[in-house]
């Protein structure tokens, strides 16, 4: 599954009442495709959950969404644009939610990625990241995620696990602002950018096949906001190229990207 921008006439926005939905953009951009069917929340609710066994206890896809909703209701965070998808005849769910603080930034918002399966392919889980407004690029942070296997007591443990993830999101909000500001301030030359692109392949950010697209985005950015010759522009050259790939691989790729660029700008220390 990958991300792409989409016309507002066909973009799906599902309301998780009673939380208010914040419309930050005329064209919502969290769209899932490529092997998964975009659905609304009612369709997610209708998916039947298989019966539990002694060792396997699947949960409803909607149960994970609802638990996130309840937890966010206790904070100052609010949900913006959302996208929900089902694949494999409803056996697998993946969703994205924009998460906004009371004080919005001009560059990005946080995003929660949710997933659940009824065919034992992967555990229930949440990963947090950021979506850049101007280009619809998405990156995930390795510091904020959880995965819980569908075993005994998952229903008991789910509220605590979700609360922990949301708590980490709140704690890391300032860190992300610091990171982006550091990326913007760190000017780099073409030689340094080329070196970082090659090193990115060494740490698993992208394959050799993606080097030309990343180079093209660096040399001729399609968005005016990234014409500056700094790490922020290079970061978005990577994420612009990565968003056409497998969404399931995006968390580990962008986590590696953050690690590489954080080290370059001196944040890892």
Quick tags:
disordered N terminus, 38% helix, alpha+beta
Task: Tell me briefly what this model is.
The chain is an alpha+beta fold and 269 residues long.
Q: Stretches where pLDDT falls below 50 for ≥5 residues?
A: 1-28
The major sheet is characterized as: 6 strands, antiparallel
| Overall spatial form | globular
Count of β-strands? 8
Strand order of the largest sheet: 3-4-5-6-7-8
Mean pLDDT: 82
Share of helical residues: 25-40%
Give Rg in angstroms.
19 Å
Topology pattern, helix = H, strand = E:
EEEHHEEEEEHHHHH
Number of helices: 7
* Spatial separation of the terminal alpha carbons: 34 Å
Strand content: 15-25%
Q: How does the helix and strand content classify structurally? A: alpha+beta
General description of the model:
With 269 residues, the chain is of the alpha+beta class. 38% of the residues lie in helices and 22% in strands. The chain is built from seven helices and eight strands. The strands form two sheets. The protein has a six-stranded antiparallel sheet with strand order 3-4-5-6-7-8. Strand 7 (124-132) and strand 8 form a beta hairpin. The longest helix has 32 residues, at 154-185. It is globular. Residues 1-28 have low confidence and may be disordered.
Secondary structure: elements and pairs:
Elements: E1 2-4, E2 31-33, E3 37-39, H1 41-46, H2 61-73, E4 78-87, E5 92-100, E6 108-117, E7 124-132, E8 137-148, H3 154-185, H4 190-202, H5 211-219, H6 231-242, H7 250-265
Antiparallel strand pairs: 1-2, 3-4, 4-5, 5-6, 6-7, 7-8
Helix pairs in contact: 2-3, 3-6, 4-5, 5-6, 6-7
């Amino acid at each position: 599954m990958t991300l792409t921008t989409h016309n507002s006439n066909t973009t799906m926005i599902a309301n998780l009442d009673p939380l208010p939905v914040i419309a930050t953009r005329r064209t919502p951009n969290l769209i899932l495709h490529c092997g998964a069917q975009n659905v609304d929340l009612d369709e997610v609710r209708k998916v039947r959950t298989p019966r539990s066994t002694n060792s396997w206890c699947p949960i409803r896809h909607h149960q994970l969404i609802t638990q996130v909703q309840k937890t966010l209701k206790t904070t100052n965070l609010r949900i913006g644009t959302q996208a929900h998808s089902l694949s494999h005849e409803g056996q697998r769910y993946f969703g994205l939610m924009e998460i906004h603080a009371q004080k919005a930034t001009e560059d990005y918002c946080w995003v929660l990625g949710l997933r659940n399966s009824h065919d034992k392919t992967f555990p229930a889980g949440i990963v947090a990241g950021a979506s850049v407004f101007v280009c619809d690029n998405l990156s995930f942070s390795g510091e904020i995620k959880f995965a819980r296997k569908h075993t005994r007591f998952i229903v008991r443990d789910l509220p605590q696990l979700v609360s922990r993830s949301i708590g980490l999101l709140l704690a890391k909000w300032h860190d992300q602002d610091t990171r982006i500001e550091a990326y913007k301030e760190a000017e780099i030359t073409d030689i340094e950018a080329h070196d970082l692109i090659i090193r990115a392949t060494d740490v698993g950010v992208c394959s050799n096949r993606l080097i030309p697209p990343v180079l093209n985005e660096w040399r001729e950015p399609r968005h005016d906001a990234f014409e500056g010759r700094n790490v922020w522009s290079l970061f978005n050259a990577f994420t612009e190229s990565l968003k056409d790939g497998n969404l399931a691989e995006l968390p580990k790729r962008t986590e590696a990207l953050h690690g590489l660029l954080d080290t370059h700008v001196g944040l890892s220390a």
